[in-house]
Amino acid sequence: MPVEAKIGLLRDRVIVDEREYEVLRGRRGWRAIVDPRGPAGRVRYDGLRDRISIDSVHGVLEIRFRWRHTAFAWRGRMYRVGSMAWNRLTIWDGDRPALEGKMTWSGLRLDIVSQEFREIERELAVGLGLRAMAVATAFVPLG
After folding, report:
1. Using an 8 Å Cβ cutoff, are 93 and 82 in contact?
2. In b/e form, how buried is each residue of 97-106, taking b as 16+ CB within 10 angstroms?
3. Up-side HSE of residue 123: CA atoms within 13 Å toward CB?
């Protein structure tokens, strides 16, 4: 089931299984994903430190991106973030892909999300989409 984060100038949204979730913009860059069935998770991308912070009822996650070999821990396992070249994104759990996605003009679409990330898939999609948009705009020529 694909998860798509659409990042816009005025509003953001997440679409999971043709169901749309509103994303509210808060203070200090936090974005809250509104879920009418339960508590909202929130996510923030810090462009200066190049990190994604996720605060959810399922746990807290921080991904600090490095030039190479970016890794993070979630639920006692280590995951490795692959290259974001050619508009593709893969997060590896050892030798198997735990999350695969593609950057779009308006954000990010996750095509494969493993069971470990199902609880925070919307927050991950928004955070990775914000980072993808920041990286893309960094390379846009001015003038």
Report:
1. no
2. ebbbbebbee
3. 26
Cα end-to-end distance, the chain, whole Å: 40
> At residue 45, what are phi and psi to the nearest 5 degrees?
-110, 120
The residue extents of the domains of the chain are: 3-138
Cβ proximity of 32 and 22 under 8 Å:
no
Q: Which of 57, 58, 65, 130 is nearest to 91 (CA)?
A: 65
Dihedral angle over CA of 124, 5, 57, 83, nearest 10: 0
Which residue, 69, 78, 72, is CA-closest to 54?
72
- Report whether 97 contacts 84 (CB < 8 A): no
Residue 93 backbone dihedrals phi, psi, to 5 degrees: -115, 90
User: Distance between CA 125 and CA 43 in Å, rounded?
Assistant: 10
pLDDT tens per residue, range 83-121 = 888 889 999 999 999 999 999 988 999 999 999 999 999
* pTM (predicted TM-score): 0.91
Q: Are the C-beta atoms of residues 123 and 54 closer than 8 Å to each other?
A: yes
